[in-house]
Amino acid sequence: MLGDGYLHLHTYKYDVELLVRDYEFAEEFSRAMVKVLDRNYKKPCWSKPHNRWRVYYSSKSFYE
Q: Which of 24, 40, 43, 46 has the lowest CB atom count within 10 Å?
């Protein structure tokens, strides 16, 4: 993933996170993750430390 997002591998957890200033972009990213992962929609939340909108999902399929 390039840009404002990143993948992070924990010992047993596989994460993808997007941090952006554009709320509409964060919403669209979340809608795309719902389609790709067949999961429930997560509304972007405001991250005070980063001063950005945050969308966060976990899935091992990101690393396969």
A: 40
Q: How many CB atoms lie within 10 A of CB 53?
A: 23
- Of 19, 31, 25, the C-alpha closest to 55 is 19
**Which H or E run contains 13?**
none
Mean pLDDT of 29-52: 94
What pTM value is reported for the model? 0.77
The SS3 call for residue 63 is helix
Question: Degrees (nearest 5) of the Cα angle 44, 49, 52?
Answer: 35
Q: Provide the domain limits for residue 10.
A: 5-63
